[in-house]
Amino acid sequence: MTELEQKELMVQLGRSFYERGYTVGGAGNLSVRLDENRILVTPTGSSLGRLKAECLSVLDMEGNVLEGDKPSKESVFHLAMYKANPHCNAIVHLHSTYLTALSSLADLDPENAMKAFTPYYVMRVGKLPVIPYYRPGAPDIARELGQRALMGKAFLLANHGVVVTGSDLLDAADNTEELEETAKLFFILQGQKIRYLTDEEVKDLENRGK
């Protein structure tokens, strides 16, 4: 995919997230690895529903702006994850309704905020570790995500939202959508007796993905 195509896809996906209520106002940010030395990221304060290809920020791996508008202040944690995980090629960070609600619950398992109850959650994401609360833009978020970048595809930021990775932008978007739907089902099922997948069933799904 050419650089222009990546920019157009980012605009398209941002608008789709916005129109479906996955993000509001200027919340959330997207990024994709353009090559070994550059990433494309949404600008600071920009609405994902009103992105313009020519305004998207191109950064080198040290965070220097090579092209476009000033990047999101959270581009720091995007860069930390790209540096730590060579298989991470795109990142979606949203404050989507159900995942943000989940992130605000007390006493979540720090290793996995949602125990698996659908195979699609396992196949798409696997598990959802929780990053402790830090204010948005705090360098601690980048440190935490950089340290854990090789440990999974998605991370729940306590009282904040979610960070989801993928092999490309479409894959990261698909992973995010499956995760948000799983969180929605989690809340719908509250008060009901949930049949969680057994360890053997989870292991079977994980093995099929290898």
Automatic annotation (TrEMBL):
Residues 8-187 form the Class II aldolase/adducin N-terminal domain. Keywords: Carbohydrate metabolism, Lyase, Metal-binding, Zinc. Its EC number is 4.1.1.104. Its cofactor is Zn(2+). It comes from Alitibacter langaaensis DSM 22999. Catalyzes the decarboxylation of 3-oxo-tetronate 4-phosphate to dihydroxyacetone phosphate (DHAP) and CO(2). Transmembrane segments: none annotated. This is 3-oxo-tetronate 4-phosphate decarboxylase. It catalyses: 3-dehydro-4-O-phospho-L-erythronate + H(+) = dihydroxyacetone phosphate + CO2; 3-dehydro-4-O-phospho-D-erythronate + H(+) = dihydroxyacetone phosphate + CO2. Signal peptide: none annotated. It comes from the Bacteria. Coiled coil: none annotated. It is an enzyme of class 4 (lyase). InterPro entries: Aldolase_class_II_sugar_metab (IPR050197), Aldolase_II/adducin_N (IPR001303), Aldolase_II/adducin_N_sf (IPR036409), OtnC (IPR050013). One of its GO terms (biological process) is pentose catabolic process. PANTHER family: 3-OXO-TETRONATE 4-PHOSPHATE DECARBOXYLASE-RELATED (PTHR22789:SF0), FUCULOSE PHOSPHATE ALDOLASE (PTHR22789). GO terms for cellular component: cytosol. Belongs to the aldolase class II family. AraD/FucA subfamily. SMART domains: Aldolase_II. One of its GO terms (molecular function) is aldehyde-lyase activity.
